[in-house]
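dumping these here so i dont lose them again. two proteins, back to back, each one seq then structure tokens. dont judge the mess
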Amino acid sequence: MTMAVPAAVLTAGVTQPAEAAVGRGGPVRFRPGKAMLGSYLSLRGRSLTESLALRRKQLGRDQRIVHRYYPWTGYAPVSEPEVPPGAVLMVSWDGTFHKRITSGRSDRDIALMATRLAGMRRPIMLRWGWEMNGNWFDWDGAHNGRKASGYIKSWRRMHRIFREEGATNVAWVWGPNWNSGPDVSWNRFQNYYPGDSYVDWVGVSGYNFSRESPRTLFTPIVDAYGGRKPIVLAETAAIGHGRNTKAPWIRRLSTYVAATPSIGAVVWFDTDNQKGTSRNFRPDTDDEALAAYRKMARSTRFSG
């Protein structure tokens, strides 16, 4: 069934087709006007089950997406018992150097992960090889000859193997960083895009490390892809920049998402336990921040 929609809407200063991503998203469907809200949860001293219970008590609702990180090899679970049945599992799966994939040497590992995820028999968002336009991972362009072509070939090979293994419950999430490092022509995020036929959701990672606004972080990706793919803010959170600075940023995020119809999901990086850093990304570090997050979580826009 098609929906009558106006030709265009103005979102955060960017004109987009109003029909952006309607009926799309692959196995994890995009619902116009309804954003799923979830998180990566790793709270010091608490299991995932305990962390989910805490957030349920604070917010009065469950997580719609539960985000997990998998290494490239050595871990391919058959189930995720701590992830509630009603939640979408989002898996961020590490990559490797492009030649290890394009040569076929990793086909067995890819097929194993495909069969394991297929066997979970639940909708899964798979974000493989994220932030490929940075210079901090084995799979980024900076570690692969300063070229994007190997990344695209790797993605398409993996996509084919997943299809052959029957992993039809997997929605493919392509997720660049909000800015490129290094910021040079060969490393622009557009160069890494595998193509519309190989991507179900477009993701983006962005934090307010230097006081960036949500509009600064996310509008370039929304502008480039929101007209044809649903957008997931796959990694985002606010760190404090002094007293009572998280709450205003959360309110700006809520306003930005409300004004940007192509955003179909927001996944908070909810941790005080990130290895190698003392940053605290939790939305409950102070009462005002928690109140702002609770209001966002309970709003109609975040009822996906």
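---- next one ----
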Amino acid sequence: MVVLASTPAVDHIPLLRSPDPGDYFAGMPVVDLSSPGAPRAIADACERFGFFKLVGHGVPLNAMERLESEAVRFFAQAQEDKDRAGPAYPFGYGSKRIGLNGDVGWLEYLLLAVDNASLSAACPVPSCAVFRAALNEYIAAVRKVAARVLEAMAEGLGIAPVSALSAMVAAEGSDQVFRVNHYPPCTALHGLGLGRSATGFGEHTDPQLLSLLRSNGTSGLQIALHDDGQWVSVPSDRDALFVNVGDSLQVLTNGRFKSVKHRVVANSLKSRVSMIYFGGPSLGQRIAPLPQLLGEGEQSLYKDFTWSEYKKAAYKSRLGDNRLAHFHKLQQP
């Protein structure tokens, strides 16, 4: 069993109601990226949920499994060896503490910088050459998928050129981050009959344009539905990717796509391993609604800002804060 460094008492980690069988997201949109109907299906899913499951993505299964295997091997190391890869400020290994503002969760993780299609040379973690090779293989593949998804979003919205969104992530100097999360079994709660689970990663939205997640077969991811705020559990699928709309994409579409609030509930019996690619623009990129999406007389819902300005504001906030609230514009009658 993996034990987290300086593990606090379980009551120091926020507890959530354990998922019930009926909580599963039965209506989750599933999009085949290789299908001709993918652009419209993706746009519809982003408007309704800000989230969808992606199949037919083309990322080789062996690349996903290789990275998962190397991640499991890394997190199984002695704690003192893992600690040498930290702290995760700005990049490296972290345990329990998420950011600098007091958020905690039942997890350990690697936060990594990406340049173009591979780990940044300025990011020495992890030091293992085999692990780095697995990361670079997967990052190169998933980055291509992110560009294809953004192009499909543009096509589904009727935006020309279709590269209007993907170019922001593909551009030189784009701000990309990769994260590998490990949620050990929270055995302290098993069998206590509390009806509660430990928070693995607290509720939040992602600030970038989009994120693409892949996990092992252990469930735990939950999203909040836009219409009523109900939390629903996302069934795990080791072969699929799960796509989240981020705050920046919400602004670029003037609210047509809405970023999805999500969280992870730690499992009491099984480890969960997830790897997430976050696609963001360059620091100087202006984030404002695309003119093609503003109808006649329609105003922007947001104040103009750059990705650098929003990123700084986001990382000064707590996970559950409504980060976009500070950038909403009061509309004139």
